[in-house]
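Q: what sequence does this backbone want?
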């Protein structure tokens, strides 16, 4: 029976991977690999700001600050830096210390100072206010960066002299930027998505090149995108649908600059497509387009950036792993396009769109997240709304029924847990 269960899990993971990619988001001193160490949140003596804070969940203020959607789970930060998670938890990716799924938000009870969190396919990474980087969940190919392939069901600290500023979890790899602008990568590298010039997996953070001017990064299905402080856009990894935006379908195992004549300010890598915002507020997209996820009115793949519409007021964008896209305007409007098989566009139906369509009439949206078939957004009142596929309860609504319209997520039922 145990062998059968393991085989079944393997089949499910392969199927999930296919869905994620095709059906479906002063300079510190360097350390040698031997300089990395692993500590769990329950260990004592981690230094200032680390460890369990059992009272954090009890005093958490109403509202939400940020949210990130993985393949079948969701993580979010509440005021005060308190971390909440719900949905699938087979590999401990919720950080609750077990493998039980949740269909409504549950506080992790670990610290109360998180500033950034990113959900991958089945793993989670987060940065606290001290600049420490933590990881938990599925650890195949070393995507947690802890020097091994052992799963973790609660946050584990990667101890280093680096102070971290930004992190992004992809399907099976992770990218992070230090406060000094250095780019580091680890995890699966079968298509060169780590940008290290080879196709060898890394189980510990490894520096990408010698540049110290990286500003933001996005880890997609099997490709990576990053923006420098000067507004240059670079891409590497899998490129079979043109998702690197380099004018061809050839994979790259080192960062290659996208020459589009723009200065870039934001970028998001989906399963097999990419979207970015230029400094003038224009929206551009490229890559797989079989479901209209590029948003140019066609279903043809694009191997170079194409301008989406003529608007110049785009402020944020999220490329979903299930072939769809969400974007916010500077005026707080929320738009969606692409695959809509599970209602992930939030338009009240299940019809795909190949051009941006506005979701409702609200103009107070401030943040958005696109997972594999489910979406979430936060408004200026701090309310969290969710819609789309709801397997494992990843919408956080207390059930597993899908929604094709935004539905508010409440912490009221979970607050006593």
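A:
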């Amino acid at each position: 029976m145990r062998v059968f269960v393991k085989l079944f899990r393997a089949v499910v993971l392969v199927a999930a991977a296919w869905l994620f990619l095709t059906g479906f988001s002063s300079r510190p001193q360097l350390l040698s690999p031997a300089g990395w160490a692993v500590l769990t949140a329950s260990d004592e003596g981690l230094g200032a700001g680390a460890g369990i804070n059992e009272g954090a969940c009890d005093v958490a203020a109403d509202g939400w600050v940020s949210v990130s959607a993985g393949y079948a789970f969701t993580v979010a930060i509440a005021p005060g830096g308190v971390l909440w998670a719900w949905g699938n938890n087979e590999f401990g990716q919720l950080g609750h210390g077990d493998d039980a799924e949740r269909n409504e938000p549950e506080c992790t009870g670990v610290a109360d100072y998180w500033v950034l969190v990113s959900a991958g396919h089945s793993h989670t990474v987060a940065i606290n206010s001290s600049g420490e980087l933590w990881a938990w969940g599925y650890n195949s190919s070393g995507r947690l960066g802890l020097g091994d392939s052992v799963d973790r069901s609660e946050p584990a600290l990667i101890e280093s002299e680096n102070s971290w500023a930004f992190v992004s979890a992809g399907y099976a790899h992770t990218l992070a930027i230090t406060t000094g602008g250095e780019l580091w990568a680890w995890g699966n590298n079968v298509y060169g998505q780590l940008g290290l010039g080879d196709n060898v997996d890394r189980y510990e953070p490894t520096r990408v090149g010698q540049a110290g001017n990286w500003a933001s990064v996005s880890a997609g299905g099997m490709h990576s995108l990053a923006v420098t402080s000067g507004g240059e856009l670079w891409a590497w990894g899998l490129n079979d649908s043109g998702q690197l935006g380099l004018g061809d379908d050839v994979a790259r195992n080192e960062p290659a600059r996208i020459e589009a004549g723009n200065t870039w300010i934001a970028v998001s890598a989906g399963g097999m497509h990419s979207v970015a915002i230029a400094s003038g507020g224009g929206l551009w997209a490229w890559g797989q387009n079989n479901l209209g996820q590029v948003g140019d009115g066609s279903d043809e793949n694009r191997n170079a950036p194409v301008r989406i519409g003529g608007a110049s007021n785009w402020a944020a964008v999220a490329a979903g792993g299930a072939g769809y896209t969400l974007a916010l305007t500077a005026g707080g409007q929320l738009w969606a396009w692409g695959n809509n098989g599970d209602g992930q566009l939030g338009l009240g139906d299940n019809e795909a769109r190949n051009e941006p369509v506005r979701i409702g009439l609200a103009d107070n949206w401030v943040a958005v997240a696109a997972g594999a078939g489910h979406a979430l957004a936060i408004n200026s009142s701090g309310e969290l709304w969710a819609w789309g596929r709801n397997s494992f309860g990843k919408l956080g609504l207390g059930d597993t029924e899908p929604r094709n319209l935004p539905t508010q997520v409440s912490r009221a039922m979970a607050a006593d847990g």
